[in-house]
Every structure is written in C-alpha cells, then in structure tokens.
Amino acid sequence: MENITEFIRQLNGIVSGPILLPLLAGAGLFLTIGLRLTTLRRIPYAFRMLWDGRKKTDQTGDISPFNALMTAMSATVGTGNIAGVATAIFFGGPGALFWMWLVALLGMGTAFAEASLAVRFREKDALGNMIGGPMYYIRKGLGEKWKWLAFSFALFGMTAGFGIGNTVQSNSVADALNHSFGIHPVITGIVTAILVGLVLLGGIRRIGDVAGKLVPIMATAYIASGLVILGLYWQEIPSAIMTIVESAFTPVSAAGGFAGATVWGAIRFGIARGIFSNEAGMGSSPIAHATATTDSPARQGTIAMLGVFLDTIVICSMTGLVIVVTGAWQSGKNGAAMSAVAFESALPQFGQYVVSIGLVLFAFTTLIGWSFYSEKCTQYLFGVKAIKPFRLIWVLLIPVGTLPNIELGSLWLVADTLNALMAIPNLIGLFLLSPVVFKIAHYWKKVDATKKEEKFKKEAEPIQ
Which residue ranges traverse the bilayer (predicted)? Predict the structure, then answer.
C-alpha cells in the first residue's frame, strides 16, 4: 500500500505541477487573447443571458440554461471555496488570492470554449437525453484518430469523480457536522447517501431542479454572512486589498502563526487552488452545459463564463477577504479551520456554524453535481446500460468516506492526481479545437450589429 501511495505521489508531482499548471494557465491566456478579451467585456451581457435563461424553452435540450449553470456550479462551489482559499493563503500568504483572481479571469475564456464546444458537438443518447462534454467534442471535432484522447478523458473523469466528487465530499460533510453538532460521521454518511440517492433517481432533470434552487440559496446566504463581516471591518478593507496585492509580488515575513511565504508560493498555491475551485479547463462543467435547452453554443458558453466569475471572483473572494481583514491568516490554522477562526472571531457563537453549514451544503451539491459528470463518462465508456449500476455504486460509496480508518490525505492525493489526468486530454482538445471556438465567438459580432441596428431604428423614430 505504501508503494502505491508513493507512486501516486510521484505521479501527482509530475502531472499536477510542471505539466498541468502551465497547460491550464496557457490555455486560459491563449483563449482569452484569441477571443480578443471579449470574455471580460461580456460579463454584463452574460448576466442578462443568465436571467433570460431561467425558463426552459422549446429548443433542443433537457434543462434550462440557468439550471445547467447551477448544475455546473453545484460541483464547482464546494470545499475549495472555504477550505481551498484558506489553504492557498496558509501556504502562499494573502497574495495567493490575487493569483486566484487572475487565473479566474483567464479561466473565463476556457469556460466559454468548453461549454460552447459541448453544445456544438453534443448528441442524443439511446434514452433520448442530450449528452456532451470533452469526450464528445474531442471525438467528433477532431475525428476518429483522436478517439484515444476522448477515451482517456472519460476514463479519468469516471474514476476522478469517486475521489473528488464522492468520498472527499462526504468526509467533509461528516467532519463539519461532527465538529459543530457532535453527529457521528457514519450516521452522516448514511443519511447523505439516502438524500443523494433520492436526487439521482430523477436523473439530470431532478439534479438540475435541485441545483437550481439550492445553489443560489446557499451561495447568497454565505455571501451575505461575509458581507456582514466586511461591514463590521469596513475600515480594514483598503489595507487588506493592499496587503493582497503587495503580497502577490513581494515575499511575506513570518508573523504570529504564519510561517511566511515567497512570491513563488503565492503564485503556485493561488493558481492551483483557484483552478481547483472553479474547475475551468478540467472538462467537468461542459458535461452539464451540454444538456441546456439552447440552439446557440456561444450563448451557453457566455453563460458558462459566469460559473468561473461567481465561484472565484465572488465567493472565494468573500472567504479570502474575511480571512485577511480579521487577521485569521496569521492564526496558524489551515484549511476550513482558518475560515472558521475568521468567521467566529467576527461573529462569536455564530460564525463557526456559517462555515460548518456552508461546508455541508457546498459538499452536498458537489456530490450530486459530480455524480452526473462521472455518470456521463461511464456512459460514454459502457453505454446506457451502465447508468443504474453506476448510480448504485456511487450512493453506496458515500458512507465509505466517513469511516474512521479512511486516510483523508491519501484520498486528496488520489483525487488531485485523477483531476490532473482528466484535465490534460481536455486541454489538448481545447488547443486543437480553438479555431472552432473563435468561429463560434462570431456570435458576439452579430449581437453587437443587432444592438446598433436597434439603436439606429430607435433614434430614427419621429418624435410624437
């Protein structure tokens, strides 16, 4: 067992560092420049499209564009938004938050590319449901000679879900409820499995409905709590932002329980945790966006960009700013414990429950979101006959993550490695299919032309 763990650790050191991070950052930069920075300029338009996409239409697809985004966000908004941000700050200092922001802005271009390709190359399965994602746009967009790359993504995506999307999440739920309310972890595991099972019985439509209601509520509640704290510490906000920016480019000395950090540490952990949080480039979220009721790949791609923006620029920033303004980053605590210190110091007798309940809800939605991702990868490999057995195995494995003899460190190691392995085929596909992405983005020129025409007609109308 030790030999296997050591092998995975060495593999992780290769694929997660020297290979993955440059690929992810490079893809984001390449696509953002290739899209002429329109991903950044289209954020207000994306919010309008999101609002318009709340209702399901008679267009092709299974769930509304809004619910497709919420399903994607149900998987991305998770422990990374609470524990991941704190871990980045613990190892990289406050400056890590700056690099999280930067990688998110670049990741919006990647998210647009993934989602638009997913809709462009999606197809109907034997059950009449829409399916898509990297395995489909790699195979259909690049041709049969690239089937091996599509197969690789599906294989790693199927297995990665059981780590990052299943046992790791159930462990986080159990730990949070045990710490705050004294609930036995195994009980939590069993109840969680039952609840997830009830959701999965309804397939993507029920997953979309649950995500469409739960994700906005939990995100709004968490952000509201953070805003209350920032309101209490409003005088510290300017200096906190200065600390974040300065720490991104200068080393941070040890202070209090903080061990100090180099500039490289801020860059490395900021980028790594940012990517882990919003999953841009990982290839997971386009599987959800492929099910949206839309006839426009570019329109759904524009909506998909908001997943990255809301996850990192909004929710992760809330966690990071609270940690910095309260001084919790110097507490010596790491992960969710640091976030708990920050919220509890500002909201005594209440703050720790914000973090605990937030972790529980975020992890639960990740369980249902990632179940869909892994299911579609399994379906690609084995056909629709594998759906029911997959769902059964998924639900049965949830309590395993809560068992006392489970080594969480090993779970995270395997999960991170598999995540990296599934991202690499997807990123190769995005680079090779970038001409298709840029062609799809011509949609925005048509939108601008239509706006100009409407404005001209309005100005030409005679005054009554």
Answer: 19-39, 66-92, 98-119, 148-169, 181-202, 214-234, 240-267, 308-330, 350-373, 393-414, 420-441
**Neighbouring residues of 145: CB distance < 8 A, sequence distance ≥ 6:** none
Other Cβ atoms within 10 Å of 396 Cβ, number: 11
Helices in 53-133 by DSSP H: which ranges?
65-76, 79, 85-92, 95-120
Partnered with residue 255 across adjacent β-strands are 258
In a domain, 454, yes or no: no
First to last CA, the chain: 83
The 3-state DSSP class for residue 154 equals helix
The residue assigned the tokens 């790693």 is 156
Strand partners, 258: 255
pTM above 0.70, yes or no: yes
User: Is residue 463 a part of any domain in this protein?
Assistant: no
Residue bearing tokens 């100090």: 260
Residues of the chain falling short of pLDDT 70? 1-5, 12, 16-17, 52-62, 256, 259, 406-412, 447-464
Q: Could you tell me the CATH number of the domain that includes residue 94?
A: 1.20.1740
Residue 456 lies in a domain: no
**Total tally of structural domains belonging to the chain:** 1
What distance in Å separates the CA atoms of residue 94 and residue 89, rounded to the nearest whole number?
A: 5
CA-to-CA distance for 456 and 450, rounded, in angstroms? 10
Task: Kindly state whether residue 5 falls inside one of the protein's structural domains.
Answer: no
